[in-house]
């Protein structure tokens, strides 16, 4: 159920009334928005990227699970690979996810 309190600073009703809270600095549109939008944009982009990274790593795990014919919790990934995925640029991780040869080499 969406909140119906009508408070424009409510995390649930605010955005419906055009008042957004910046996830980086926490300022609201109604208060003039971010003090430093460039920095906030970069932080928000990073947060989106981190979220996508989790999704991509999950996809890779699922593909390896399929190759190894095991359930997701039994997937074995070579030592150090996970760290590589966590640290590599998101563009490379995107490509890696669709790289069957690479997935096959891990399985
Ligand atoms: Zn509300
Ligand atoms: Zn901000």
Task: Describe the structure in your own words.
By secondary structure, the chain is mainly alpha-helical. It is built from four helices and no strands. It is elongated, with a radius of gyration of 20 Å. The chain starts with 36 loop residues before the first helix and ends with a helix.
List keywords for this structure.
binds zinc ion; 0% strand; 50% helix; mainly alpha; 4 helices
Structure in a nutshell:
This protein is about 50% helix and about 0% strand. It is mainly alpha-helical.
The arrangement of helices and strands along the chain is HHHH
Bound molecules: zinc ion
Q: In DSSP terms, counting alpha (H) and pi (I) runs of 4 or more, how many helices?
A: 4
Helix fraction? Answer: 40-55%
């Amino acid at each position: 159920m969406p909140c119906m309190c009508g408070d424009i600073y409510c995390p649930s009703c605010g955005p419906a009334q055009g008042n957004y809270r910046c996830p980086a600095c926490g300022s609201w549109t109604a208060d003039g928005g971010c003090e430093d939008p460039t920095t906030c944009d970069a932080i928000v982009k990073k947060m989106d990227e981190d979220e996508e990274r989790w999704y991509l790593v999950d996809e890779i795990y699922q593909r390896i699970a399929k190759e190894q014919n095991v359930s997701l919790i039994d997937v074995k990934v070579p030592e150090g690979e996970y760290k590589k995925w966590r640290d590599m640029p998101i563009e490379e991780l995107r490509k890696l996810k669709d790289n069957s040869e690479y997935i096959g080499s891990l399985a």
